[in-house]
Amino acid sequence: MSTIETDLLNIKQAAQFLNVSEISIRRWTDSGKLSCLRIGGRRERRFKQQDLTNFLEVQSRSELDVRGVKGVADDKVTKIFLEGIAIDYGNHLCSLYETDIGRVKLSVPFLADGLRAGDKCFLVATKATQKVILDALSETYPATSSDIANSRLILSDGMTTSDGFYDYLEHHFLQSSRQGDQYMRVLGDMAWAIDMGMSTDDLMSFEMRYNHSLAKKFAVVSLCQYDSRKFTGTEIVKALKTHEDTFQFPLSRFVGF
Amino acid sequence: MSTIETDLLNIKQAAQFLNVSEISIRRWTDSGKLSCLRIGGRRERRFKQQDLTNFLEVQSRSELDVRGVKGVADDKVTKIFLEGIAIDYGNHLCSLYETDIGRVKLSVPFLADGLRAGDKCFLVATKATQKVILDALSETYPATSSDIANSRLILSDGMTTSDGFYDYLEHHFLQSSRQGDQYMRVLGDMAWAIDMGMSTDDLMSFEMRYNHSLAKKFAVVSLCQYDSRKFTGTEIVKALKTHEDTFQFPLSRFVGF
DNA sequence: AACACATGATTAACAAAGATAAGTATTGAT
DNA sequence: ATCAATACTTATCTTTGTTAATCATGTGTT
After folding, report:
1. I want to staple A147 with a disulfide (CB 3.0 to 4.6 A). Which of A29, A153, A236, B119 is the partner?
2. Does residue B61 sit within a domain?
3. Are A217 and A91 in the same domain?
4. Residue B138 sits in which domain range?
5. In this structure, is residue A62 part of a structural domain?
């Protein structure tokens, strides 16, 4: 654990990395196209390698470029927007809800926007929850059922262990990447794990494993939603702790629907 | 599930991690902007990775906000420092802990710093919890018992309803203000309410009432800590929602000790 | 070819970060 | 026990990243 992750580049290094001028880097960060961190009283820019690689477009990206049609092709490639908040690919977030309406409040726009943007989407939930979310999704996004048929939206099926879940996602992520689907979204309704008989310890160790590998290696936004009615206080706290990415956003947007 | 914070970085590693010079690290720690631990007779600096990542600001914040905070950073009259974070008087925060050690992790420095700074401090908790906190407090702040005798530190006593709690605080706040104690701190260990037989609904309505009146009208920093083992998931979520001030800070500092 | 627009270059002023040096004291190793 | 390396503090001085403005160059599109 001694390797210091020196993956924070300053603006000069970032400019070299992308082979552009520092001025462009400044403009891109100012306009929000490229995300960066700030440090110190001079508010110097620091860049995560992944944010820079995310910023690079992939030449071989999908045949039908949904983004291109809308003319926003170059603008929002590195981010998604959820509830007006810009979220980079690579983030692994959680949200907490406490009503049946809350279950679809974030999940539906998250998936609908993803499908519209051409992202490969995954819905991990029990059959019953899948039905609730898909019904609501169909209302705002009529192409839902055809997207399921086309495997643009993939429904979880049959996984009963956290390791199985991990393998499932890794397999699909690799496969999607090979097929040119670089941008992905995962929505997990984590009460699913409980209903599958997983212990919450199991679930948390999955979250940690996922957090350090899959979530960061692929251009995927992962949103894990927790039904606060089905977890204890300590479990909710653990859920928050295993989704540290969430803390950089206004948490009130993700808590308590 | 331990993920021990075994990796304390020295100043060289910290500088490498943030991609800055050691001199800047020294300046930031000296001014209290970046928190660090000290060790040995040479008082060497040691850094938690968590603290370092917290020091990085997210670009999304409007530059005006950041400027404002920085600009008055020297003006310590309007702020306190907890875990290296500047907190304005008027804030009403919550923290979540899940171990007996976590109970004193934030509360003790919060009160110790307050007493050292001459703030009028209030400790609201059951007798048993009071004893635990006061024992730990006495170790780092020897004048604890004399401050209790002098009414610099006031211990809750005998309140059994949320309205009674509110009246109690209002009375003391007014009295303290009249006596020239403008700056105050309240530490509430909210499992106290449960042990007093309050319902969590009662507790939450108190929090909301407090949030909109006392907490904002007086120069008081209020820290409500919740033992996540004694509350349900939904209750924890409600606790978060009734302490929105918390969301403007790096939540990882307040969650899960 | 003409156009619109993104990128690069240049300037300015300011404050913060970096570099350097001197002097102490603690560590860690021989 | 000794000694060199390290980290600390304090101080001064130089360099750099920041914003903002304007202009020139280059790119891709129609």
Report:
1. A153
2. no
3. yes
4. 70-253
5. no
Q: How much of chain A exceeds pLDDT 90, in percent?
A: 60
Nearest CA among A244, A183, A233 for reference residue A210 = A244
Write out pLDDT tens, residues B128-183: 999 999 999 999 899 999 999 999 999 998 788 888 899 999 999 999 989 888 89
Interface of B with A in 36-65 (CB under 8 A): 55-60, 63
Please tell me which residue, B138 or B253, carries the higher pLDDT value.
B138
State the pairing for strand pair A184-189/A220-227. Answer: parallel
A248 CB-to-strand C distance under 7 Å: no
Identify the residue among A52, A205, A247 best suited for mutation to test binding to B, counting B beta carbons within 10 A and taking the highest. Answer: A247
Q: Are residues B30 and B114 in the same domain?
A: no
pLDDT of residue A249: 80
The whole-number Å distance from A44's CA to C18's C1' is 14
Please report, for the domain that includes residue B45, its CATH number. 1.10.1660.10
Whether B240 is covered by a domain: the verdict is yes
Is residue B96 within 8 angstroms of chain A, CB to CB?
A: yes
Residue B76's alpha-carbon distances to B72, B87, B116, in angstroms, are 8, 10, 14
Of A204, A236, A244, the CB nearest to B233: A236
Asked if the Cβ–Cβ distance from B98 to A234 is below 8 Å, we say yes
Which residue among A4, A204, A232 places its CB closest to the CB of B1? A204
Are B19 and A10 in contact (CB < 8 Å)? yes
**What's the average model confidence in pLDDT over A141-150?**
96
Number of domains in chain A: 2
Q: What is the pLDDT of residues B195-242, one digit of tens each?
A: 888 898 889 999 999 998 899 899 999 999 999 999 999 999 999 989
CATH number at residue A208: 3.40.50.300
Give the mean pLDDT of chain B.
Answer: 86
Subunit contact B16:A6, Cβ cutoff 8 A = yes
User: What is the DSSP track for B22-68?
Assistant: HHHHHHHHHTTSS--EEETTTTEEEEEHHHHHHHSEETTS-HHHHHH
Q: Which of A67-71, A245-249, B113-117, B241-245 has the lowest mean pLDDT?
A: A67-71
Q: Does A252 contact B247 at a Cβ distance shorter than 8 Å?
A: yes
In a domain, A43, yes or no: yes
* DSSP-based three-state secondary structure for A154: strand
* SS3 call for A183: coil
The reply to whether the CB atom of residue B73 sits less than 7 A from any atom in nucleic acid chain C is: no
Is the distance from CB of B207 to CB of A206 less than 8 angstroms?
no
Q: Would you say B235 and B96 are in contact if contact means Cβ atoms under 8 Å apart? A: no
